[in-house]
Amino acid sequence: MILHKGETLFRQGETGPLFHLKSGLLKIVRVHADGTVILVNIIVPGEIIPHHSLISPNPYYGTAIAMVTSEIEMLSAQQWYLELERDPQKCLSIALLLQERLRMMQQRIDQLTEVSPPEKLRKLQSWFNQYIAPAPLTDLLTQDEIGQFLGLRRETVNRLLRAQAASGNGT
User: Fold this and answer.
1) Residues facing residue 2 across a β-bridge
2) Of residues 5 and 77, which shows the higher confidence score?
3) Which residues contact 140 (CB under 8 A, 6 or more apart)?
């Protein structure tokens, strides 16, 4: 299936199939009880989501929205879990997939625990270039979303991006 920028794949709290992102990018946002929307993850090609349902079914943790035109393969949850029971090799491949995802998240934690706002932004840009390039960070995420991802205010992100552009170090 093809999902165009801004279209929703699934909504927080729903249940349903798993999905394999063949190309494109998805963002996972979480809607809190007060209506606040927070960007919590970016899904890159090759990932199967939701991650927390690869071993056992659970409601969707957040809402998945296409950041760019994306090609997605729907995977039957029933078939997925039946294959897990029958094929130990598939369990190993899922463990390896989750291990890689954990390493990716460790890099994100490293970004969030950085004290200096400029260094937080630099590490996010480096992560973004590693997993999502060639599109620049600011082409795909708003300053609010960058701030949510880094634990910074939008105004701080704006100031940091302007400083980078002025110094010729913008990514």
Assistant:
1) 71
2) 5
3) 25, 67, 68, 132
For residues 4 and 69, the answer to whether their CB atoms sit within 8 Å is: yes
Give the pLDDT confidence of 30-69 residue by residue, as tens digits.
999 999 899 988 898 988 898 878 888 889 999 999 999 9
3-class secondary structure, 34: coil
Coil, helix or strand for 10?
Answer: strand
Q: How many CB atoms lie within 10 A of CB 53?
A: 20
Instruction: Give mean pLDDT, residues 3-26.
Output: 94
- With a cut of 90, say whether residue 106 has pLDDT above it: no
**Chain position carrying tokens 């199939």:** 17
**CA 13, CA 63: separation in Å to the nearest integer?**
8
In angstroms, rounded to a whole number, what is the distance separating the alpha carbons of residues 41 and 21? 14
Neighbours of 41 (CB within 10 A): 22
Structure tokens at 58: 């659970």
- Determine the 3-state secondary structure of 115 from DSSP: coil
Which residues does residue 74 pair with via DSSP β-bridges, in sequence order? 19
Q: Is the pLDDT of residue 170 over 70?
A: no
